[in-house]
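thread: overnight batch results

M.L. [08:02]
morning all. the overnight job finished for the chain we discussed friday. pasting input first so we're all looking at the same thing
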Amino acid sequence: MKILLISDIHGSIEGLDACMAAAPSVDKVFNLGDIVGYGASPNEVVNKSRELGGLYVRGNHDKACSGVDSTDGFNMMAALAAYWTQKNLNAENLAWVKALPKGPVMARGVENVHCVHGSPLDEDEYIIIVRDAYEPLRQSTVPVTFFGHTHMQGGFAVENDQWATLRPGYQTKDKLENVELQLEANSKYLINPGSVGQPRDGDWRAAFAVFDTEKFIVTFYRVPYDVKTAQKKIMDAGLPDRLATRLTDGR
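M.L. [08:03]
and the structure it wrote out:
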């Protein structure tokens, strides 16, 4: 079985369309949250996400944009974008985002896999460095947990107290590329497919991944997309300029 892993779309239909065009044929889709927030195409992205179906977990921006949670703790840009998104989502899509489930969510039909937004221990926790991964992996009862939230593609692994940070290495900065990661049977993993709509790992390209359950391989992808159109929509919507300009350098 092949599973498409997407996360942190953040209202970017340009990023999502580019990822879907580049993705191979898959059997399931796992959407790890933050479907909306920041970007200027929330309804288009929700419509597409609903059309794709599969497994969903909610992100912190999904909660804030739908009114499930407040914007306490958000910076000014994020809060303004959340208010704008809540105002611009249509009633049906707002209700759908509001009903997204809290992680971790077990994947039906896929053994020993959990899906979360932030961490298996706290849906809003950031796992950025290997120290952050220590307790979630130590307490994990499954070999593989897929997460998002950090907008950084890669992840972490542990086997017999040997810890590793996983970051795919790409050859270019502007082409479609993929990198395979062979998972090991005796290790436990936290795997982040990266951000579709707002990468923050220094690579502007949209990110996603595919998990092959039979080969036990995760393939990471980076995909060029129409950044200029995404930026123009953000500017035209009156959202903070920085939400547009940051897309160019992936920060």
